[in-house]
Amino acid sequence: MSTFTRRSQSFDTDGNSTESVTTIEGEAIQISGKPATYARLGLSASQAPTLLFTPENYELRAWSNEFVLPGDEIEWAGSTFIARDVETLAPDGYVVLGWIVVERGGT
C-alpha cells in the first residue's frame, strides 16, 4: 500500500490555526517517465521517478482535491517525495490510474 499525504492549514476568525491531513491510499509502481514531462518540469528521471498509481477508492474525481495534487507527499524507497506533476486516466471523471512525477524532498 502506498499513501499520498496532503497537509493544509486553516484559520478561524480568532487567527487560530488547525492542520488538516488528507490521505489518498492505493498501489504504486515506479515506471519510466515521459521525457517531455521531465523537460517541462526541469527534472531528470534519475532524481524524480514517475509512479503509476491506482487509488484504493474508485470514487475520487479527477482534477479535484479528492485525488493526488502537486505538493502532496509520499514515502518511496525510504525517502519522502513530493508530487510535481499529475496526469490521470479518468474515463468517466473518476480516477482509475495516475502518472505522478515525484521529486525527493518534503518533511
Helix and strand layout, with pairings?
Blueprint (H helix, E strand, L loop, with lengths): L1 E10 L5 E15 L3 H7 L8 E6 L17 E4 L2 E11 L7 E8 L3
Antiparallel strand pairs: 1-2, 1-4, 2-3, 3-6, 4-5, 5-6
What does this structure look like?
The structure is a single chain. This protein is mainly β. It has one domain (2-104): Thrombin, subunit H. The chain has one helix spanning 35-41, and strands at residues 2-11, 17-31, 50-55, 73-76, 79-89, 97-104. Strands 1-2-3-6-5-4 form a six-stranded antiparallel β-barrel. A hairpin with a 5-residue loop joins strand 1 (2-11) and strand 2 (17-31).
Tags for this entry?
six-stranded antiparallel beta barrel; mainly beta; Thrombin, subunit H; 7% helix; 107 residues
